[in-house]
Amino acid sequence: DKVLTELIEPYELRAAKLREFLEDVKPSLQYDIVPLVDPYGPSVTDPDLQCLVVSEETRRGGEAVNKKRLENGLPELALYEILLMKDPDHRQNEEEKISSSSLRQRLLGTLLRPPRQDPALPSRPYVIGLTGGTGSGKTSIAKLLGQLGAFLIDADKLGHAVYVPGGPAYERVVAAFGAEILNEDGTINRKVLGAKVFGNQERLKSLTDIVWPEMARMVTEQIGEADAQGKAVCVLDAAVLLE
User: Fold this and answer.
1) Using the 8-state DSSP alphabet, how is residue 10 labeled?
2) Which InterPro entries match (predicted)?
3) What CATH number does the domain located at 126-237 have?
4) Do the domains 5-107 and 126-237 sit in the same CATH topology, yes or no?
5) What would the pLDDT profile of 55-67 be if each residue is shown by its tens digit?
6) How far, in Å, CA of 39 to CA of 20, rounded?
7) Which fold has domain 5-107?
8) The whole model's pTM is what?
9) Can you give the residue ranges of every domain in the chain?
10) Cβ contacts of residue 183 below 8 Å, gap of 6+?
11) Ordered alpha helix ranges (H), the chain
């Protein structure tokens, strides 16, 4: 349940920073930095350990360690509790203590790396892919970017457009899945179609092989429209962007 887990630094970098800190505090200190592959690490198996440093919020974890050690036939560790340093500059949505979670919050809105220069791509409009699961906030972010002047492409709307009678995928979808997917007015009943492909990878691939290339073509047309309007930035809102 860590905040912004995608922005957690890789283990090698975190270990290097910890090593630098330890050497700065006391160069003569002897230490081992051990990667933890479970909640306990070596604390429940190493007979040479004598003390465990905890904070008020991790004391229960320390007590759980001692319970495991007793089960493993090892003596309990002395639990030495320290106070966590407060962050005097923490914002309302950040933790009160000095925390890497707060640092990740502050990374939002900054470039993690410069935009990739690809001579094969036109410089304008600059296309941003916006993706994420249902309820992740795509629509809200798209609206904000639209208010800043970006040209918005809603892949969900394009997905509906390919199925309508006369749409680019209509005839082939009906031919592939039969007239039983049609409503009385000739439109495709997407619930019936969904029931046909749900849980069947072969049928689902048959459908996406028809629909996705048409959607990609429509997206390309929309990007061209953004360019024609002189838009510098184009945002593609798509739940299955990578696919």
Assistant:
1) P
2) Depp_CoAkinase, P-loop_NTPase, Rossmann-like_a/b/a_fold
3) 3.40.50.300
4) yes
5) 999 999 999 999 9
6) 24
7) Rossmann fold (3.40.50)
8) 0.58
9) 5-107, 126-237
10) 189
11) 11-25, 59-71, 100-107, 138-147, 155-161, 170-177, 190-197, 201-228
